[in-house]
Amino acid sequence: MSITLGIRREDKNIWEKRVPIIPDHVKELEEKHGIKTIIQPSKIRIFDDEEYHDIKAKVDENLNDANVVFAIKEIPIDFFEKNKTYIFFAHVTKGQENNMPMLKKMMDLGCNLIDYEKITDEKNRRLVFFGRYAGLAGMVDALWAFGQRMKYKKIITPLNEIKQSINYNGIDEIKNHLRKIGKKIQQHGLPNDISPMVVGFTGYGNVSKGAQEIIDILPIKEINPKELETLNKNYSNKVIYKVVFKEEDTVESVLSNKKFDLQEYYSNPERYHSVFHRYIPYVSILMNCIYWDERYPRLITKKLIKEHYSKKMKLQIIGDISVDINGAIEFTSKTTTPGDPIFVYNPLTDNITDNCKDDGVVVMAVDNLPCELPKESSIEFSNTLLNFIPNIVKADFSTDFNSLDLPSEIKKAVILYHGKLTPNYKYISKFL
């Protein structure tokens, strides 16, 4: 019997053009490993049907003959087949309510589920991810949102020229345009009304690095959080100030005079509280790039932003790339799309609107930012996934879990096996 993998068509929204395995790698998998591919047809995918057909992949609606089905986003519950293996970003490990029916269906059908997000090395670092591209696109969109806000306020700045990521022809065009804008900032400076302009980043992982890669194209000067308070006394309007907030900058122990301990914070986050209020008066754009769950203190609560809010408040844009609903940014109450990427939160009324001109703080909360750079993000993702595919597709999923022969990086990402939660993920049952 031939070994065949399936690639599901992405159809969560009209913006989702990505693919987990690109044509070049489909060809390599057959030539080197004897693995054939069936891919569902798509009218929007960044690599079209012909590109797969040309390298002898089968383009077919029916994936019944596939041993393992690869996808990117969540899969509709009517798609799953009994006892089959699926690998995609499932978004179930936090007990996400909207995805529990999908997980339950997979359990009922005896499916196996491997989640890309949980493919990690011995130090628990993710190995297969789109994080960099979420950061790249998110930073561009946040700068675009800032430019739109400035237009509304009738403040003329070179940043007003920036477009959304989806309106550029890839990352090279974005970077070339930003270099031109950077030269204008160096030559003419930024208006006094927005100077000193400060862009803050929470976190320092792949998402944050991607976002910083964009801002670093512009003329920047990096400072540490402690310098923010005195920045107004001595600054240049020909640079953008960049500040990266680490855990020790954003939280403190609830016990007075106790020093910050990173391992204690990860193990017992309830022993810490947020001190992010110290920075709100000084930051123009905040890029939220951290992992968060309900055990951790929020960065910005509704109460905190209300205390600091005025129409002249410096903080104009929050690029919430992490997009945890009512999470680290408490007023991120919904996700947005590339076609409608922002909403405005009014701290005084606790209302949100979709009009950039309304009073409040602009929040960019697109939950699938890498799809705004579909070609580059698909190529990089496929490059990292490629080494794992033969082991996944050729594995004997009929054996018991203890005997399942998969690399440790993959095996720890198996959430369901034969329709049952594996030992590391038993806790999810409480959300079902």
Note down, in words, how this protein is organized.
With 432 residues, the protein is of the alpha/beta class. The chain has two domains: 3-129 and 374-431, NAD(P)-binding Rossmann-like Domain (Rossmann fold, 3-Layer(aba) Sandwich), CATH 3.40.50.720; 131-372, NAD(P)-binding Rossmann-like Domain (Rossmann fold). It is built from twelve helices and 18 strands. It has helices spanning 23-33, 49-53, 100-108, 131-152, 171-188, 206-215, 247-250, 262-267, 302-308, 374-386, 389-394, 408-411; strands spanning 3-7, 35-39, 58-59, 68-70, 85-88, 112-115, 198-202, 220-223, 240-245, 251-253, 272-274, 285-288, 317-320, 342-346, 351-353, 361-364, 414-417, 420-421. The strands form three sheets. Strands 3-2-1-4-5-6-17-18 form an eight-stranded mixed beta sheet. Strands 8-9-7-12-13-16-14-15 form an eight-stranded mixed beta sheet. It is globular and about 70 Å long. The mean pLDDT is 95.
How many structural domains are formed by the residues? 2
Radius of gyration: 23 Å
Strands, count: 18
Sequence stretches where pLDDT stays below 50 over 5 or more residues: none
Briefly note the CATH topology name of the largest domain. Rossmann fold
Q: What string, H for helix and E for strand, traces the elements in order?
A: EHEHEEEHEHHEHEEHEHEEHEEEEHHHEE
Mean of all residue-level pLDDT scores: 95
Q: Report the principal-axis shape.
A: globular
Assign the CATH architecture of the largest domain.
3-Layer(aba) Sandwich
Number of helices: 12
Described by its quaternary structure, the protein is: single chain
